[in-house]
Amino acid sequence: AIVDTPEASLIACTGGKDSPFTKAIYKNYGDSSRHAPLLSSSTLDTIDSIQARNIFPQDLPVYQRAAVTARTNGVVYPFWRDWALAEPCEFLTPEPLHHWHKMFWDHDAKWAIQAVGASHIDFRFSIHQPTVGYHHFQEGISSFKQVTGRTHRDIQRYLIPVISGAISAKFVMSLRALLDFCYSGRAQRFSQTSSLRVQTALKEFHERANHWEIPKLEFMQSVEPSICASGPIMQWTADIMEHAHITLVKDPARSGNNHNFEIQICRSLDRLDRVRRFDLMTAMKDASVDFRLEDVEGDEGQEQGAEGLQVDKEEDMELEITKISSTEKLVTHLNPVSKKLFGSFRPKQNFFLKARLLERAPSAPLPHRSFVDNVTGEISAFSLVRDPDLKTQTIKEASRLYSLSDFHGACSDLIDCIKSGTKIFTIGGRKNWKYSVTFALLPGQALVQVANPKQNIF
Questions:
Q1: Is the predicted pLDDT of residue 82 greater than 80, yes or no?
Q2: Is residue 372 helix, strand or coil?
Q3: Is 303 helix (H, G, I), strand (E, B) or coil?
Q4: DSSP 316-370
Q5: Dihedral pair phi/psi, residue 370, rounded to 5°
Q6: Could you say which DSSP state residue 250 is in?
Q7: CA 452 – CA 458 distance, rounded (Å)
Q8: Tens of pLDDT, residues 5-54
Q9: Which candidate, 42, 237, 311, 448, has a CA 20 to 30 Å from the CA of 359?
Q10: pTM
Q11: How many angstroms separate the Cα of 400 from the Cα of each of 130, 396, 406, 416, 432?
């Protein structure tokens, strides 16, 4: 079951601050070892013992007081009561989005903000070097009120190096141990070694941390047993459901007039479903898809499908009907036909492959616009655009816009190299240009083309 801690307590029928997974109470949440699992037989015996004392749920106030004393939530007949071999401590699996990422924001990040100081940690985040593909927190993180799971993950990547040096090493190592636990637990498959790595990170945290009474911290003791019983944790994440809440509830609600939300949401979803069914049907028609699994011999010159349809053999051959027997085959067959289905069709660029193909092509113009850094063992690939975005930008304006103080000199060095017949150019390093040398272009002239057109160097 994919649930958060409150839902887990409701399903396990535990009351108060008791753990829904073990026999630990809130005073034991900071223990470094896992307590005995809370078995279904123990929970059912506790529930039955209340009625054995002639206290029945019909007298709700009395029964509720007895349930609180017995540390249950007052549920009389759990839905899993008659399930054979059902154990809530096993089928209630960890959920990464809430048990790890949300916990990180509610506790780890708040601890760091409190220890470092809101203004100081915001300053450290703001001066962090922006990285392409990663979120840059230019205004810091202390003022965030409501953030998504994506933001939780982005902050996790930066937190440890950002706070290092601002607080004690013991505090930093404790938070790092928790992050190591989360990252180790997100593996797609586990062995004995990787499962042990998860438990080792948690043990390292407890060796340095104080005794904190946090329910989700206690639940971390059940992650490794859950991996052994139910497999990798990432298959139980609630990301898909949370995203569906946006696409199936929030987005349709925004398209209405703020009245009768339920009716308008259902009407919008119904229309979207009809449009998708129409797109699917037209795509199958264009792809000549036939769902008949096998042919049944009929009259001569004809063959009868599984649904009793008569199709002429010659007509079958002309239409080249493709028979589909699984969803995977259908998706594979419709992908080239319909661009309305199955997500984005934006092609993925392989710059490493493109660079290798250019090296093998003797007629490719030099220098290549896609190339591989051979010094680092083909770790990095570069692809340079031919036409600049700012085609009328002057050298002075470009130098000021991108904070390139030596751009004027770099352009001069490039022209000197081209004039001398150099075909290999070094990226970076010291510039040989001197301020006493007059540049070939006027200060206000735009740098459009600075080399021989045959070499295609721009």
A1: yes
A2: strand
A3: strand
A4: HHHHTPEE--SHHHHHHHHTTT-SSSSS--PPPP-HHHHHHHHHH-TTS-SS-SE
A5: -120, 125
A6: I
A7: 9
A8: 888 899 999 988 888 889 888 888 888 888 899 999 999 999 999 999 99
A9: 448
A10: 0.62
A11: 19, 6, 10, 23, 21
